[in-house]
Amino acid sequence: MKGGIRYSEDANEDEVKALAALMTYKCAVMDVPFGGAKGAVKINPKNYTIQELEQITRRYTSELIKKNFIGPGVDVPAPDYGTGQREMSWIADTYSAFHPGQIDALACVTGKPVSQGGVRGRLEATGCGVFFGLREVCSHADDMMQLGLEKGLEGKRIVVQGLGNVGYNAAQFCQQGGAIIVGLAEYEGAIYNVNGLDVEAVMKHRKETGSLLNFSGATNLKTREDALELDCDILIPAALENQITDENAGRVKAKILAEAANGPTTARAAEILLRKGVLVIPDIYLNAGGVTVSYFEWLKNLSHVRFGRMGKRFEATSFEKLLRVIEENTGRRLSDSERRTVARGADEIDLVNSGLEESMAVAYDQIREVWKANSRIPSLRTAAFIGAINKIATCYAELGIFP
Amino acid sequence: MNRVQPQAGFFDNVAVYFDEAASFTQHPKGLLDQIKSVTAFIRSSFPYAPNKATRLYLAGGRSTVITSYL
Predict the structure, then answer these.
(1) Where does A99-181 have alpha helices with state H?
(2) pTM
(3) Which residues contact A80 (CB under 8 A, 6 or more apart)?
(4) φ/ψ of residue A181, rounded to 5
């Protein structure tokens, strides 16, 4: 099983069960071989010192160990709201201490720092996956035409709600990909600039002043919820669940709702958006970059070798030989810059990003194929769920019955 | 709109999405129920001692659904 651990005062059983269920379908959508899981501790981590958080994390881990709810082949937690690399390190260390000599112990948890067995690219994976997913969706000219939009992510006006790890990285990658970030929101409020906001500069301003409000050239909005109703092409809710409800769904102006958070849209709101013609890209696809790269980290921990280590030099040498043949036959000598671009082997980060990009592209093709195959299927979400159910059902059916 | 109760919880919302999608498949109800069910949930109240004189209890839990291998 696979799923994050969140530290939140608002956590409850209903939420944890729902998120665990979503993880199951998300893994199936992405062809990641895990069932779903989710964990929570009902605290506000801001009210505790680092030492106290370490004590709490290690104690919670021991509870999971005692009840056999954690292990490389049992259940593999990951970061979620209120937790991060630091907490995953403590979990891995606690698990290892209880399992001396277990060679795969580090695979008991993902989202660890690279120094503790993590994989390069995991930290920004969910946000990067949001970008890859959006780029895939926007690459279909006929779908975009139905929304009154041009093909491609370039030039699309985006509003991001939530500037945590997911929202910040999604905004950064989309901006680098040519989109215009016109609105950003956090708990203290929201800012808007029709000409675009420099995400990095806004983050610097927020770090210096403690708020993203009053950013030069931007208009302040009173609450972060106001950002959900801004005029834009793509709205990315990247905070918590239940942000788009039947109360505010009717006022959403975006043509595309990109669910970077888990469950940001209630089912009633989803129906309103569907009637309005808004294209909702479901969470079980769009924010699956995190679990996908977590899967890569788990594989790395089980294989005990960094991705690219065995093949990088061999690949570079092979490309070098090929270039020499091309140079001899064409009579053109490549510049050092051209040579460095072509004659190189893949690093771990290259392979992780490439694997994530491929996973997001393949998964969207599968979802879209289901969606387009039956005109009665109302939404990408339903199509994604159908695909997930079919995959799991086939798995169960072919499993047989034992004993 | 009538399919979803105004006060529906998060898990109910997920169930609505699942049921709608399931209606487009040909799988038997038993198999769909098996996929939909939550396999296990642990609810834990565990001690935490911020100092030698104090012992607090925190609420934690973890839910697991199913194992699917593709």
Answers:
(1) 125-138, 141-147, 165-176
(2) 0.95
(3) A3, A4, A5, A6, A38
(4) -85, 105
Report, as an integer, the average pLDDT of A306-315.
97
Q: Do B58 and A43 touch (CB under 8 A)?
A: yes
Residues 247-276 of chain A with CB under 8 A from chain B are 263, 266-268, 270-272
CB contact under 8 A, A41 and B48: no
Other C-beta atoms closer than 10 Å to the C-beta of B33 total 10
Q: Which helix (H) or strand (E) holds A237?
A: strand A234-237
- pLDDT per residue as tens digits for the range A32-60: 999 999 999 999 999 999 999 999 999 99
Contacts of A27 in chain B (CB under 8 A): 68
Residue with tokens 């294209």: A279
Contact assessment for residue A197 and residue A230, using Cβ atoms and an 8 Å cutoff: no
Q: How confident is the model at residue A399 (pLDDT cuts 50, 70, 90)?
A: confident
Beta strand pairing status for B54-64 and B40-51?
Answer: antiparallel
Give the separation between CA A278 and CA A386, rounded to whole angstroms: 20
A221 band by pLDDT with thresholds 50, 70 and 90:
very high
Q: Which of A171, A159, A270 is nearest to A225 (CA)?
A: A159
- Nearest residue in A to B62, CA atom: A39
3-state secondary structure of A212: coil
Cα-Cα end-to-end distance for chain A: 22
Closest C-alpha among A126, A55, A227, A13 to residue B48:
A55
